[in-house]
Design brief:
Order of helices and strands: HEEHHHEHHH
Number of strands: 3
Helix content: 25-40%
Number of helices: 7
Distance between the termini: 82 Å
Strand content: under 5%
Structural class: mainly alpha
Length: 219
Amino acid sequence: MNAAGLNDNDVYKIKIWESAYPKEFPICGYWEIPSERYVAENDCSDDQFPGSSSRDMGNAGSVLVKEKDVGKHRGFEQELFTRTDGDWQIKLVLSSYTFRDSVGAYGFPDGLSDCSRCMNQTCSSTCSKSMPYSKAHDPTVCGYTVYDSSNNWAEGVYTRVHRDMDVILAMRQWMGLSTDVSPSDVGLPSQCTPVSEQWTKSREDSQGFLDIQQEAINI
């Protein structure tokens, strides 16, 4: 880049995606360029597709649509913002969509790959990897909208990882912003509380129920 006419200040401004994150960096055993010029991310679009070998995460990261483990994935998204072994100035969160593994459909759920749109018999008889339409933006939901009403993994829906309160709080802490915020403060519905608060409330509700039972027994 210097040879192309860029000075050192301009070169420093150019960021490069860190393909070796989260397991194998620095890939050469040392930082070839300052770590703050690298961009870090847990899972990326390429990681999602079957047969992808773009990165070996080992046990240091998680691909949501492959492992289908929300708790594990959320933990690595939070870790992205708390790790200090690299001075990454830009960190990315992937909000994607789930695949229809049952039929081998991996296209966007924008409705343009929906077999019901076929206009002739040839299309209808050969179209087998349908991906129906799913609304991308829904202001009434929280993050990780990857389960159906029966709590089973849902196919062909948007993941909305960026709307998860725990991930948002980790991001805000890394940015030096206050974490003493409510869901509504960051544009989320009131029910989108952090998982830790949901667990605490569940424990409190359970204890309250047990106290009522005990009072009934004493009576």
